[in-house]
Specification:
Number of strands: 9
CATH topology: Uracil-DNA Glycosylase, subunit E
Distance between the termini: 35 Å
Structural class: alpha/beta
Largest sheet: 7 strands, mixed
CATH architecture: 3-Layer(aba) Sandwich
Strand content: 15-25%
Length: 209
Amino acid sequence: MNSNIFFQPFVGKDYANGGIFGKRIMILGESHYCDEGCCDCGNCRLHRECASFTQGVIKDYLDENKERQDWMRTFVKFERSLVGKETDQTMRLKIWNSVVFFNYLQVAMGGPREAGTSAQYRQAGDALFEVMDKYQPEYVIAWGKRLWSNMSGERWREGEDIVVDGYHVATGAYFLSNGRQVKVMAVNHPSVGYSWDYWNRVIQDFLLQ
């Protein structure tokens, strides 16, 4: 069977049992960007390297010996919102080994703020369902309102808003092929203007649903 997935997800070694959260959580980014382009031929070395792009990003982030880069601050802010405190390398490893990280769009963008086409978002919905059916998350936390507004509307049910400090955060749920429900919400994209202590309060409410 042909797969809709090109960028393979990063799966933490403790994800299956919920890790430090005791719940199976999928973190959903929107896209990768690559100014050199990615190969989707299916059989060359470059294709294999591109397909493991997502996994490589997380592994580079978790590697203390790698030079720290600006994009890594996005992951720092988000991981702090998961645990509600500043994080060190020990906690960082525990957090990311407890989750699945997957990027929604299955084609690379040409720049960091570039959006996909409507056709690319539609195709990405099939990939998301394929990943969720395989890894059976209980919760999905999406990065950014643009991604939220472009996610698949199939097998979807609206949920009740989470309200913290008067600010409403929408939630919903997808239904998997086995009938299981996966609860879904979106945070502001953690690359800019992200208050991790505020979003921790929202996420804690979400994970109690």
